[in-house]
Amino acid sequence: MFFANHINPASGLVVRNAAAAGRSSKSFYDQKLWDAAKSNYLSAGDYVFIQFGHNDQKKDSARHTDPFTTYQEYLTIYVKDTRAAMANPVLLTPISRAVWHDGTLEQSLGDYPAAMRQLAAKLNVPLIDMNVDTMALFSKLGEEFTQNNLFMFLPAGKYPNYPNGIKDKTHLQEAGAKQVAALVAQGIAKANLPIKAYVQN
C-alpha cells in the first residue's frame, strides 16, 4: 500500500487495495473476489490498476492460465467490466522476480508480460510496464543488494517469524515495496494518465 504515499493528500484521491495473496487472474475471478471488488469499490471515474502473472504460472488447475489464451481472456473481463462501470482500466505487467544466472537477472515470468502488452495494444488500454521497469532497477542495483535489501532474503536467527531464514525470490521486503510503488508513480507519468497531476514521484 506504499503507492498511497505518492498521492497528493490535497487531491482527495483514495487508494483502495482489492488484491488477495496467492490469486491468479483466474482464481481471483472464480472465487468471486472481482465481484466483491466491483460491489465494494468500483465507481464511475475510478482508475483500476490490474496486475496478474506470478500465480498464473502455477501448475494447479485452480490458478494456471495460458499467457495468450486464458490469461488474456480473464484480463479482458476485468478491462470490459471496468469500462462498463465508466471507470478506467490500467494494465501493469508483473514485476520481475529475483532470479539471477551468472550475475544476470533473468526474465522469469515467461510470456505473461508479452501477452499483457499485446492485449493492452489490442484493447487500447494504458500499460505500465512494471516488468521492464523492475528488471532495469534490479539489474542496476545488482544481485546481492536486490536480494538482501528488496526481496525476502532473510538470514537465520534474525527475525522471529523466520527463525531458519528464508530466500524468497518473489515477495518484497518493505524497502522493495517502496521502490516498486515509486516505479508505479513514475509509470503513471510516462503513460500520461490524467491522474498524473495528483501523483508525486
TrEMBL record:
Keywords: Hydrolase
One of the record's GO molecular function terms: hydrolase activity
InterPro entries per record: RhgT-like, SGNH_hydro, SGNH_hydro_sf
Domain SGNH hydrolase-type esterase residues, every copy: 10-151
Key word Hydrolase present: yes
Keyword Hydrolase part of the UniProt annotation: yes
A UniProt-annotated Pfam family: Lipase_GDSL_2
Family: Belongs to the 'GDSL' lipolytic enzyme family.
Identification of the protein by name: SGNH hydrolase-type esterase domain-containing protein
The organism of origin for this protein: Adiantum capillus-veneris
